[in-house]
Write a structure and sequence with these properties.
This protein has 13 helices and 5 strands. By secondary structure, it is an alpha/beta fold. It has a 5-stranded parallel beta sheet with strand order 2-3-4-1-5, with helices on both faces. Helix 7 crosses helix 10, helix 10 packs antiparallel against helix 12 and helix 12 runs antiparallel to helix 13. The longest helix has 23 residues.
Length: 267
């Protein structure tokens, strides 16, 4: 496992901050890196920035049964407030091992605003021995109050997915009540099946980011114009269409139906 240099040095020195945000474009790479760090933090005989791989802790990781590791993933389109409250309660319990506890929040940029606010207390006053590892493709979707309390490490320098540009344009056309401009997006939306799926994922992410911006002190012009009800209604539409696309529904019909359904949210 290759870690960012600064992150590796902190792990080796035993000085990793209590709250770390890992940014990257590949969910699997983020997942693997977070678990590698957790394994190193809880390992009984670490080798520099790496776990030993043979101690009881390491073998329990490999078996997926380490009691001092907790992983929270999105429930549907978002990481919800009840999930973070449960995590917060669990973090107050004492460690079952002797090296602390690690809590991983995957796709933290998909936390609802309420979930992010619920996490703040834990970020500000973590119990002794607790480490929080967050992963995100788009840290900008997190509230400034959350970002200011985590240490960010980028796994890669890839630009954000170009699919987000179309998703943002879709939202702009809706906010401008531009039906014909909206329907003109259908060919690009439906060019390829894998692209359609990625566009649906991007729409969920864009809506979540705009909701977070809307709740912040200085929202972008689009976030200020976008009704909160629209931002909440679009992700379920996108996820339902994504599911149909993966079941080989006709893309041209599905894309048009998706755009019409998005339009009808406002009318």
């Amino acid at each position: 496992m290759t870690l960012p240099e600064a992150l590796g040095r902190l792990l080796e020195a035993g000085r990793l901050p209590h709250a770390v945000l890992l940014q990257g474009a590949q969910p699997q790479a983020l997942h693997d890196t977070a678990l590698f760090i957790a394994k190193r933090l809880l390992c009984a005989n670490p080798q520099g920035a790496s776990p030993c791989g043979v101690c009881r802790v390491c073998t329990s990781f490999d078996a997926g049964s380490n009691p001092d590791l907790s992983v929270t993933s999105p429930d549907g389109a978002f990481v919800k407030v009840d999930q973070i409250r449960a995590l917060r309660d669990a973090a107050m319990l004492s460690s079952l091992g002797r090296l602390g506890r690690v809590f991983v929040i995957e796709s933290a940029d998909l936390m609802t605003v309420q979930a992010q606010n619920a996490l703040l207390k834990l970020l500000e006053e973590p119990p002794p021995g607790v480490t929080l590892l967050l992963t995100a493709a788009q840290p900008g979707a997190l509230l400034p109050t959350v970002l200011s309390r985590v240490s960010l490490f980028r796994l890669e320098q890839e630009a954000c997915a170009p699919k987000e540009a179309l998703a943002q344009e879709l939202v702009e056309r809706l906010c401008e009540h531009d039906y014909y401009g909206l329907m003109k997006l259908q060919p690009a939306l439906c060019a390829r099946r894998e692209d359609f799926v990625a566009h649906c994922d991007a729409l969920c992410l864009v809506c979540h980011r705009l909701l977070c911006e809307k709740a912040g002190p200085s929202p972008s012009p689009l976030a200020a114009r976008m009704p909160a009800a629209l931002a909440a209604a679009l992700p379920p539409i996108a996820l339902a269409c994504r599911d149909r696309a993966q079941k080989n529904a006709s893309l041209s019909i599905l894309g048009a139906a998706m755009l019409i359904e998005c339009w009808e949210v406002l009318h």
